Amino acid sequence: MLPTASSTIGAPGAASVLAAGSGRGRPRKDPPVNVPSGSKYCFRCHSVLPLASFATDNKTYDSKRADCRACDNAASAARDKHRRALRNMRLAAGLTR
Ligand SMILES: [Zn+2]
Fold it and tell me: What is the DSSP secondary structure assignment for residue 59, as one 8-state letter?
């Protein structure tokens, strides 16, 4: 056993709010920066944003989506673009359903 617990290596005062495990799901990642309460870290654009920037999702531990709205919109736009491209290919090949 180590007598002194100098455990925090790189994190500047890591918030232990995430440690409240409810026993469900996989363990959550710790944000690499200090996140004040009322804010949330977006792992996609790597920035700390107010909770209002995150869409509601009742399936998650904090009822907020993991990605901010901007990232969410960008991802869904990319998804739409991809689906449209696939559809156009199918149309061009005469493979429509
Ligand atoms: Zn984001």
Answer: T
- Residue 53 inside a domain? The answer is yes
Task: Tell me whether residue 91 is in a domain.
Answer: yes
Provide the whole-model pTM: 0.62
Please count the structural domains in the chain: 1
Is there a domain that residue 83 lies in? yes
Specify the 3-state DSSP secondary structure of 16.
helix
Tell me the per-residue pLDDT of 38-80, one tens digit each, with 9 for 90 and over: 999 999 999 999 999 999 999 988 999 999 999 999 999 999 9
Residue 66 CA to ligand 1 center (angstroms) comes to 8
Distance 51 CA to ligand 1 centre (A): 12
